[in-house]
Design brief:
Order of helices and strands: HEEEEE
Distance between the termini: 10 Å
Shape: elongated
Number of helices: 1
Radius of gyration: 17 Å
Length: 97
């Protein structure tokens, strides 16, 4: 199905069609969110509910050669969250099959 048939003619149309659905949001600082999108604006500020945040923590291994790191993952859940738009890198809508 082509994008025009779905009512998608510009980028914010895809976000509008994702209202009240679970979306994936990638943020600066190695952070990722999944949650239900309730509102957005032209600055990409978002209101999400039922949110799970995933934070990637990259640590240099002490005494190891340069470039050897470990990656730890921290997760937390929140009922409601305001996301400031200047930190948003990507918003992915749910898959539509």
């Amino acid at each position: 199905m082509d994008a025009a048939a779905n009512g998608i003619q510009e980028p914010f149309d895809l976000i509008r069609l994702s209202l009240s659905e679970r979306v994936f949001v990638k943020l600066r600082g190695d952070r990722e969110l999944t949650g239900v999108l309730h509102a957005y604006d032209g600055h990409m500020n978002l209101i999400l509910s039922d949110v799970e945040e995933t934070i990637m923590l990259v640590d240099q291994v002490e005494g190891a050669p340069e470039g050897h790191t470990t990656v730890n993952v921290a997760k937390r859940k929140m009922d409601m969250l305001f996301v400031r738009g200047d930190g948003v890198i990507l918003v992915s809508p749910p898959s539509r099959t």
